[in-house]
Amino acid sequence: MHEVVANQLWEDDPPLTWRTAKRLLNLGYGRHEVLHMLGSVVSAAVWEAINEDEEFDPSGFVADLERLPESWEQLRGGS
Q1: In sequence order, what are the residues at sequence separation of 6 or more whose Cβ sits closer than 8 angstroms to the Cβ of residue 58?
Q2: What are 7-18's pLDDT values in tens digits?
Q3: C-alpha span between 79 and 3 (Å, rounded)
Q4: Among residues 66, 64, 47, 45, which one has the least CA distance to residue 56?
Q5: Which of 6, 39, 46, 59 is buried deepest, with most CB atoms within 10 A?
């Protein structure tokens, strides 16, 4: 997932990935944790595509990025 997210950031595709990364960094999260947060969104999209036999949903992906960091903190058992 690190490589997938790094490619998204490098290629600025989708642009919201980079904006989300900057937002999370500005909130005080470290780079590695931000990669994991973004990776959790990518892996969820891949899992749904494979296990639910659904096409990639760009609007759902955007919504998942916008839910960070709250969704990440819930996964970790935080707030």
Answers
A1: 14
A2: 999 999 899 999
A3: 28
A4: 45
A5: 39
